[in-house]
Protein 1
Amino acid sequence: QVQLVESGGGLVQAGGSLRLSCLVSGTVFSGNLMGWYRQAPGKQREMVATVTRGGTMNYADSVKGRFTISRDNAKNAVYLQMNSLKPEDTAIYYCYAILTRPYWGQGTQVTVSS
């Protein structure tokens, strides 16, 4: 069974940094896209960043210049480096991967205090 396991969330002050990690197990990667979405209380889930197998990256306008996505195909892992964090970045962050179909992690909480 495919599992996506996130780690690295936590509480940080505004201006600080966090690094999220996601490891995909139970499969040999067969898709071409991995990424991160987030959902704040009372808000819809939104795309934060995605990266293709070949390394093409896409970011939401709100995080450009602050967040960096990367992946390790050998480890079947995807990472999100988050710098200059703002209170509005507070959300549950979900790992996402397209294999034979889309898969989601259970999420990790990121809280940024003012």
Protein 2
Amino acid sequence: QVQLVESGGGLVQTGGSLRLSCAASGSNFRINVMGWYRQAPGKERELVADFTSDGSTNYADSMKGRFTISKDNAKNTVYLQMNSLKPEDTAVYYCYVRARSMWSNLWSSYWGQGTQVTVSS
């Protein structure tokens, strides 16, 4: 079992910045995907950015150039630096991890509790 703890959301004005963090914890697990999704009111959850299983990064088009995903493998932590924020970035941001036990070949998906990001105009 993997637990995800997110932090860093809040209220910011248009053009401002925020940095989200997500730390994964548990016993004897291996992660192959880490990333961020978001869900705005009345909309479906969408990918923001992630590290794919081969270590490359993947961004949604609307976030390219403004958001940067990074990670610290030693800490099992993924970050999302968000710059030039817009009101349409307002959403609940969820950390996502795909992981498996060291003794299993089955990968499972895990989600954080979500952190609210609100961008005022």
